[in-house]
Specification:
Layout lengths: L1 H8 L2 E6 L4 E2 L2 E7 L2 H5 L8 H15 L4 E7 L3 E8 L2 H10 L12 H12 L7 E7 L10 H10 L2 E8 L10 H10 L4 E4 L2 H14 L3 E2 L4 E6 L1 H20 L7
Parallel strand pairs: 3-4, 3-6, 6-7, 7-8
Antiparallel strand pairs: 1-10, 2-9, 4-5
Length: about 250
């Protein structure tokens, strides 16, 4: 009966299986949806905003281990999504984003930065990143970009600024300001003068931001259930044989 108890308990050796480390980053995307992103035609057949949305959607689907949030801005900045791992919801939010979502006109880069920074301030991720996509000069808002960038730097947040559009376009882009924001926060500045270059920029950011996060070991118990069942049945069989053919003591 003792063997039967052991068999039902499933005794055996325990092993710790160490899975592959996952890779994860907390990312806030700050997307300029001002009028210039829609009214510029250097990204034909689509406008700058449509191209940015398409490429961001593809970027998000590749970052399967990350949490991603979205801030949209024009003359003011608004939270579109907090940090989330729901790829479907994020994809739908970006797809539905329009320059009509914000009434205030202008380009409030500082406000977009500080709002994105605020959403990352309590993050425990090893890497915290803001990806800022804009085609304009910061000309409105409650906070200037330099002060906002200092706040990001203080919290250990890197800012990747992407200046969208051609320098000789109808809308001015302050590349120097964007470059300083990235430099001050240990990020990197990119110029995207075509849809192809913008795609390459997001691919490079994808390669730059890889962080290994330790995973808990998976405990696996190798049971010896079949062995103990065999012993139990062998014991019962021998016991039955002895009852049918009891051993005779020699006189």
């Amino acid at each position: 009966m003792l063997s039967l108890v052991f068999a039902s308990a499933g005794p055996g050796a325990k092993y710790n299986l160490m899975p592959d480390n996952t890779k994860g980053v907390d990312i806030m995307i700050a997307l300029d949806i001002s009028g210039s992103m829609v009214n510029s035609y250097d990204f034909l057949p689509k406008n700058r905003l449509s191209v940015s949305k398409d490429l961001l959607r593809a970027f998000i689907q590749k970052r399967i281990y990350d949490r991603i949030g979205i801030v949209v801005f024009a003359g003011a900045a608004y939270l579109q999504s907090p940090l989330s791992s729901d790829r479907t919801a994020l994809d739908e939010l970006i797809e539905d984003t329009s320059n009509e979502d914000i009434e205030e006109q202008g380009t409030a880069i500082g406000d977009a930065l500080v709002l994105s920074t605020y959403r990352l301030k309590n993050s425990e991720a090893k890497s915290k990143v803001i990806i800022l996509l804009t085609d304009g000069v910061s000309n409105t808002g409650k906070l200037d970009p330099e002060t906002a960038a200092y706040t990001s730097k203080t919290l250990g947040i890197k800012v990747y600024c992407v200046g969208i559009g051609k320098e000789e376009g109808q809308y001015e882009v302050n590349y120097e300001s964007l470059q300083k924001i990235s430099s001050d926060t240990s990020g990197k500045f990119f110029r995207a003068e075509s849809p192809e270059v913008l795609g390459e920029v997001l691919n490079e950011i994808d390669r730059l931001e890889v962080v290994e996060l330790p995973s808990k070991p998976l405990e696996i118990q190798e049971t010896k259930f079949p062995t103990f069942i065999f012993i139990v049945f062998l014991f019962l069989f021998l016991n039955l044989i002895l009852k049918i053919f009891p051993l005779q003591e020699k006189l």
